[in-house]
Write a structure and sequence with these properties.
TIM Barrel, 47% helix, 7 strands
């Protein structure tokens, strides 16, 4: 069943009424369900399949002030050839000024190029700058834009400003997909996570993303659970599917598989593809590769067997 939300964004008042009319999140219940799902054990063949699926969902990322073209090319080589027959990752994620380098390095591999336009990680700049930043990144070859919302505006109740900025950045994306970063560690409550998720989706987000990775806490299991519930309910009401990307704090194979279980049990198997679920984590890739080798050979490689990020 498809529902129209055409009037929701008519004003700040109508947005507030809608967002604050969403069902409240049972914090204890969300924490307990996420913890319970985290105890699921996956073994042997299923574990091997889960590891390869997780690798294919990784957005391999470098977002440091000291990033260089050489570092980006090295990361792209790892993204396209992780080693030992492993699948390629979903995307590489870089600052806008390094998009052209990444696009050239992954050309023809199927690996997407994502860029954190819009004054990442703070988002504290004008809409004109955000739109220009986005357009330049797309023009340089970005397939995906990871934008950060204005948390100050959101927390002060200026939902219409956040909505209109997402709409404008989405328009600047053209054919590129838009991932909207909520920075859930700054949203204070689970209810705000649900509201921000719906606000981003109503404004046209193709993905909703937990965090920049620069703020703690980042992608906690309960927050990812709440966002998965939001995309599931949004599709039920609108007919449009939106992806989810937890980012930050996902470091081990166990963490990655816990996220796959969350997806399966909350949103369903339709989201268990790189088209609809991503892992914003770079350090996790080495552990996934180490565990993959252990399953295939019966022994671990040292942590320095794979390139260090």
């Amino acid at each position: 069943m498809t529902t129209s939300f055409a009037d929701v964004a008519a004003s700040n008042a109508t947005l507030r009424a809608f967002l604050h009319g969403l069902p409240g999140v049972d914090r204890v219940g969300a924490d307990q369900r996420a913890a319970m799902l985290g105890t699921r054990s996956i073994k042997t063949t299923a574990k091997a399949q889960a590891i390869d699926l997780a690798i294919s969902m990784v957005d391999l990322t470098t977002l440091e002030g000291a990033d260089t073209p050489g570092k980006v090319r090295a990361m792209c080589a790892k993204a396209t050839h992780p080693g030992d027959g492993a699948p390629t990752v979903a995307a590489v994620c870089v600052y806008p000024d390094l998009v052209a380098v990444a696009a050239e390095a992954v050309a023809g591999s199927g690996v997407k190029v994502a860029s954190v336009a819009t004054a990442f990680p703070s988002g504290r700049t004008s809409l004109e700058v955000k739109v220009t930043d986005t357009a330049l990144a797309v023009g340089a070859g970005a397939d995906e834009i990871d934008m950060v919302i204005d948390r100050g505006a959101f927390l002060s109740g200026d939902y219409l400003k956040v909505f209109e900025e997402i709409v404008a950045v989405k328009a600047a994306c053209g054919e590129a997909h838009l991932k909207v970063i909520l920075e859930t560690g700054e949203l204070s409550t689970y209810d705000n996570v649900r509201r921000a998720s719906w606000l981003a989706m109503l404004a046209g987000a193709d993905f909703i993303k937990t965090s920049t990775g620069k703020v703690s806490p980042a992608a906690t299991p309960p927050v990812t659970l709440i966002m998965l519930e939001a995309v599931r309910d949004f599709r039920d009401q609108t007919g449009r599917q939106v992806g989810v990307k937890p980012a930050g704090g996902i470091r081990t194979t166990k963490d990655a598989i816990k996220n796959l279980v969350l997806v399966h049990e909350t949103a369903g198997d339709d989201w268990l593809t790189p088209d609809w679920f991503r892992l914003g984590a770079s350090s996790v890739l080495n552990d996934l590769l180490m565990q993959r080798q252990k399953l295939s050979t019966g022994r671990y490689a040292g942590p320095d067997y794979f390139t260090l990020d």
